[in-house]
Amino acid sequence: MTDAPAAELTLDDAPYLDVADPAFSIRSQAVKDARAQSWFARTPYGIAVLRYDEVQKMLRHPKLRQGSHLWPQHNGVTTGKFATWWCNMLLCQEGDTHARLRRMANPAFSPKLIADLQPKFQTLANRLIDAFIDRGECDFIAEFTEPYATGVICDLLGLPFEKWRELADIAGDMGLALGVTFKEDLPKIEAAIARLFDYAEELVATRQANPTEDFIGYLVKSHQDNPDQLSRQEMLDMIVLAIFGGIDTTRNQIGLAMDMFIQNPDQWRLLGEQPDLAKAAVEEVMRTRPTTTWVTRAATEDFEFQGLKIKGGTTLHLYGQAAATDPAAMPEAERFDITIPRKPHFGFGGGTHHCLGHFIARGDMTAALALLASRMKNPRFNGEVTWLPDSGNTGAIAMPIAFDKA
Amino acid sequence: MKVHVDMSICLLHGQCVIAAPQVFSFDDEGGLVWLAEVDDSLRADVEAASDACPEQAIQLGD
């Protein structure tokens, strides 16, 4: 390192990461080596940003926009309910429209609402743990993280817990739209989103008849008070986003938490003894093993960043996981320790598109980890874990574990 | 009412700028600027900004 002014950098000099290879791992030595060598790498999609300060700055860079809006088009899908919803919903909007929608949505996800939900999270977690605790083993995904993540959404929507399976299946089918087989799965995806909109319509109708102070109640009231600020369609799009965005992410993230704790049994023991550490545990898990390992941005025009010329239209992936575990960014960055104060992680993205549901996610994961660690001792793998690819969105599909009942 | 932002935890996400654009804004260098004293007519917006801040960095006083 020198103090000389940044020389002009070119993409050709940067390390290359073959992110499109199904065997590529975001946690591989290749990524760590690239990060040590350069703040950016070339990928088949564009540019990967690998270090802490650069990721933090680029998350809210004025010349970058959220980069997911072209996804359906890139897959040859330009019509249908899914493509229409995707292109109109909050995540794919920018500027004034985004600000207006976000202003309408934020109060429905405020931290005040979460305080009321905390006892429900605990009841739900205990109910699920009760079902397998005497057996000393379970499939942690099928028996805990999936029904828990979906059950939280049921609580949020005011649906009975028994609806969880149906909702999880719909979200699973819709999730196919984020995969490489998007186009062939389109009929399934379209059927799923149609069912989700039917749900949203029904939920809105019940709130219109009997106003409530829950998440949907807030949106219905916002729409009624300011129909020019939140149209009926925008309200329905937002409900569909909340259901779709809240299930897979939380399911995967709690599974990844268990993976980290199984590899660090002293930390699980500590959490069991001191459940107040659960809040910090959620942050440490999301720093070291986030389900969303990168976020996507697209350059809106040509610009220069730290000596690198970036062309308008370039796709950039901001590698939050790599950045937040960079040894150059913080001491003992690669160690998993729920007692060390850390710099903020990027597991919820950042900037104007910062995850809308993060207060709920933080609240429900905190409740779950505190109860799991106090009721289950010595968790260990009890068979083969089936993983999603270790790329942009990751997690376990099946995770057989054994444990000792506390 | 008084508005204070704890810049030691603010990460410049800009959710306050979205919630209360008359009170919070970004300057040309991308730094956050805000009115330290605001009229009560903006109370609802400022409270929404404080609620929406992902880092909970905004403190309000009377």
Automatic annotation (TrEMBL), chain A:
Transmembrane segments: none annotated. SUPFAM superfamilies: Cytochrome P450. The keyword Transmembrane helix does not apply. Keywords: Heme, Iron, Metal-binding, Monooxygenase, Oxidoreductase. It comes from the Bacteria. InterPro entries: Cyt_P450, Cyt_P450_B, Cyt_P450_CS, Cyt_P450_sf. The keyword S-adenosyl-L-methionine does not apply. One of its GO terms (molecular function) is oxidoreductase activity, acting on paired donors, with incorporation or reduction of molecular oxygen. PANTHER family: CYTOCHROME P450 YJIB-RELATED, P450, PUTATIVE (EUROFUNG)-RELATED. Belongs to the cytochrome P450 family. This is Cytochrome P450.
From TrEMBL, chain B:
Keywords: Electron transport, Iron, Iron-sulfur, Metal-binding, Transport. It comes from the Bacteria. GO terms for molecular function: iron-sulfur cluster binding; metal ion binding. InterPro entries: Fe-S_cluster_ET (IPR051269). Gene3D superfamilies: 3.30.70.20. Pfam families: Fer4_15. This is Ferredoxin.
